[in-house]
Amino acid sequence: MQDSECITTLKILIVGESGVGKSSLLLRFTDDTFDPEQSATIGVDFKVKTFTVEGNCTKLAIWDTAGQERFRTLTPSYYRGGQGVIMVYDVTNRHTFSKLDMWLSEVDTYATKPNLVRMLVGNKIDKPGREVSREEGLAFARRHAMLFIEASAKTQDGVQCAFEELVQKILQTPGLWEV
Ligand code: GDP
Ligand code: MG
């Protein structure tokens, strides 16, 4: 499908602690690849993908932190104009789950669209040694009115679905995007 047939361009952000798999989820979604040696410091910073949900062609501009989250130096421009945010934790690392409140307040502080759609993703479900149950993730998401899915960038479980539900919700939210 031609880009010109897309109804809109959407800005999607990916946030979460270093090492949770943000870049891996992005590369799984855009290039359908997984690199076990993916470096937590060298990220991807930006990817564009044409994505069709329920017959609506959208162009997604997906921003990755490129490792900057380690230094707490994500700038307001990272968040500016974002219509959707994917907040990632690692289900095998409780610390990354306990930092979600911090990420939520960061999004609240910098997001310029107050009704942006937030999706919580519990990543690495393929990995042994789970520390955060599905129920805990779901409860957190419900408490904060977020969409929720568990995923694995390695096996691709849930990855496509996460983006699908996020984009679907954005398109259903009045005033969040323009033709
Ligand atoms: P980021 O810092 O959040 O961007 O995390 P990365 O995408 O760089 O991933 C950090 C490490 O976790 C890398 O070694 C990845 O290969 C690994 N990783 C990412 N996603 C998964 C997953 O779903 N399952 C497993 N087993 N490892 C993953
Ligand atoms: Mg990264």
UniProtKB/TrEMBL annotation:
<keyword id="KW-0813">Transport</keyword>
<keyword id="KW-0547">Nucleotide-binding</keyword>
<comment type="similarity">
    <text>Belongs to the small GTPase superfamily. Rab family.</text>
</comment>
<keyword id="KW-0636">Prenylation</keyword>
<dbReference type="InterPro" id="IPR050227">
    <property type="entry name" value="Rab"/>
</dbReference>
<dbReference type="InterPro" id="IPR001806">
    <property type="entry name" value="Small_GTPase"/>
</dbReference>
<protein>
    <recommendedName>
        <fullName>small monomeric GTPase</fullName>
        <ecNumber>3.6.5.2</ecNumber>
    </recommendedName>
</protein>
<keyword id="KW-0449">Lipoprotein</keyword>
<keyword id="KW-0653">Protein transport</keyword>
<dbReference type="GO" id="GO:0015031">
    <property type="term" value="P:protein transport"/>
</dbReference>
<dbReference type="GO" id="GO:0003925">
    <property type="term" value="F:G protein activity"/>
</dbReference>
<dbReference type="InterPro" id="IPR027417">
    <property type="entry name" value="P-loop_NTPase"/>
</dbReference>
<keyword id="KW-0378">Hydrolase</keyword>
<dbReference type="InterPro" id="IPR005225">
    <property type="entry name" value="Small_GTP-bd"/>
</dbReference>
<dbReference type="InterPro" id="IPR025662">
    <property type="entry name" value="Sigma_54_int_dom_ATP-bd_1"/>
</dbReference>
<dbReference type="Pfam" id="PF00071">
    <property type="entry name" value="Ras"/>
</dbReference>
<dbReference type="GO" id="GO:0005525">
    <property type="term" value="F:GTP binding"/>
</dbReference>
<keyword id="KW-0342">GTP-binding</keyword>
